[in-house]
Design a protein that fits this description.
Number of domains: 1
Shape: globular
Largest sheet: none
Order of helices and strands: HHHHHHHHHH
Number of helices: 10
């Protein structure tokens, strides 16, 4: 129960800070909506479904990077990360709380972005929504771990994308495949397997990351 309380407190703190400061979510919304508008006018009319889905997933990944870049901003700016580690009973609670807040921000951005995508590029099917939900779990799990690794680096703005983008390629493949393939179950299974494996790896290794 203490672990759950720590996770809830950390996630709630990040969400409340965002509601007060409005630093992350407006930037995410502006980026993803601007991307769709630009793609809509740049691409030729009648662009096929595969290309459109590829654009959706590229936009989701780069929008997530905005959230991850700010995941540890408050702790970094006020040098509170060491205190946060000492205050929690289990350092992995920091990872889970941060991942949950990132997941909330992604979900809120996509609640707006997916209807806009449907207006510009055609309706969004249920299997695409399921793929996005599964991909969000993997993005939050892996991205939060990598954001914790990059937070102490002077080149964190460069290091985070370099680490993050190669690791989410399977999510993009699974997401596009689930959206356009005739039988999406195997691609949804790939996303679920990715979430399980990398979620466990991130949970188990985060304590080592923040104590080094």
């Amino acid at each position: 129960m203490n672990y759950v309380a720590d996770v809830g407190a950390l996630a709630r703190k990040d969400v409340l800070l965002e509601l007060r400061s409005r630093d992350t979510l407006p930037a995410m919304l502006l980026f993803v909506l601007s991307s769709f508008v630009v793609f809509h006018f740049v691409l030729p009319s009648g662009t096929d479904r595969l290309a459109a889905q590829g654009l959706l997933w590229v936009a989701i990944v780069f929008t997530a990077l905005l959230a991850l870049a700010r995941a540890f901003a408050a702790e970094r700016e006020q040098a509170l990360l060491d205190g946060l580690v000492l205050a929690t009973r289990d350092p992995s609670a920091i990872w889970l709380g941060k991942a949950l807040s990132v997941l909330v921000f992604l979900g809120l951005a996509e609640v707006v972005a997916l209807p806009v995508f449907a207006v510009f590029f055609g309706r969004v099917e249920g299997r695409t929504i399921a793929a996005v939900a599964l991909a969000d779990l993997g993005i939050a799990a892996v991205g939060t771990l990598l954001a914790g690794m990059a937070v102490a680096s002077r080149a964190r703005e460069l290091l985070l994308p370099l680490l993050f983008l190669p690791l989410v390629i399977p999510l993009v493949i699974g997401g596009v495949g689930a959206s356009v393939a005739g039988h999406p179950a195997s691609y949804l299974g790939l996303l679920a397997l990715y979430d399980a494996i990398f979620g466990l790896v991130a949970w188990a290794s985060f304590a080592y990351v923040v104590t080094e």
